[in-house]
Design brief:
alpha+beta; two-stranded antiparallel ribbon
């Protein structure tokens, strides 16, 4: 499973390598921050308990 910080670094590097400094007017650092929120605030409920994803991303993502 890919660590979350490494995934975020890869995302920003990919966009930068392909010539993006902004995507639809949004700077890459903001995109990284928003992606970080999606990865780090990912929770699920199982058996009446709430769990937070701490490594990698959600299944099927």
């Amino acid at each position: 499973m890919l660590p979350q910080e490494e995934a975020l670094d890869i995302l920003v590097e990919f966009l930068h390598v392909h010539g993006y400094t902004k995507v639809k007017g949004i700077p890459l650092e903001t995109i990284r921050l928003l992606a970080s929120i999606v990865l780090k605030e990912n929770v699920f409920v199982y058996g009446k308990k709430i769990y937070q994803q701490v490594l990698g991303g959600a299944m099927g993502s």
